[in-house]
Design goal:
Blueprint (H helix, E strand, L loop, with lengths): L1 E2 L17 E5 L2 E3 L1 H29 L6 H12 L5 H14 L9 H7 L1 H19 L15 H6 L12
Antiparallel strand pairs: 1-2, 2-3
Helix pairs in contact: 3-5
Length: 166
């Protein structure tokens, strides 16, 4: 937090900052309210990252996640290519739904190559769920088929041999 007499506007809301405190974040200045919102967002992202790393540790039963995996995860989230929740679904999809053996050494490959496949799978699941919610089982008429005993007796077997011949 720096106090500067020079003018300026909040980078987020456009409020004039002249004569008040300016709060810097990533080389931009914000008013107090906007800066607090940014702090909450950053804290929330940090919590999501920590939760995701803990999920990986628990899923793969490891004590520590390699720096290369953490670096990949951070880059993917910062570039808006992937989300923590989406990567969590990808791990679950690849290892639990597809039945592959959990191996943390292939995690970056799984998150790179299987993310869109997992996304499509879950989108299809959501679409099916939505269609099923619109169907009322009780309103669907049930059909009863009656089989007459005579129909069963008249049917001849499709083979020409006797069981004793086998």
């Amino acid at each position: 937090m720096t106090k500067t007499p020079s003018g300026g506007v909040c980078h987020s809301c456009g409020k004039k900052l002249a004569g008040s405190l300016k709060y810097p974040y990533k080389n931009k200045f914000y008013c107090f309210d906007c800066f607090k919102k940014i702090e909450e967002i950053v804290q929330n992202e940090n919590n999501k990252e920590n939760d995701f790393i803990e999920y990986i540790k628990e899923f793969f039963q490891v004590n520590q996640v390699s720096e290369s995996i953490v670096s990949f995860i951070r880059k993917a989230v910062e570039s808006k290519e992937r989300t923590f929740e989406g990567m969590k679904y990808t791990i679950y999809y690849y290892y639990k739904v597809m039945g592959n053996e959990p191996n943390i050494e292939f995690l970056t490959w799984v998150l790179k190559d299987k993310y869109s496949e997992a996304r499509k799978f879950y989108e299809d699941q959501q679409r099916i769920k939505k269609v099923n919610e619109g169907i009322d089982i009780n309103s669907t008429p049930s059909i009863t088929v009656k089989i007459k005993k005579s129909d069963l007796e008249n049917k001849k077997p499709k083979f020409n041999y006797k069981i004793e011949d086998l």
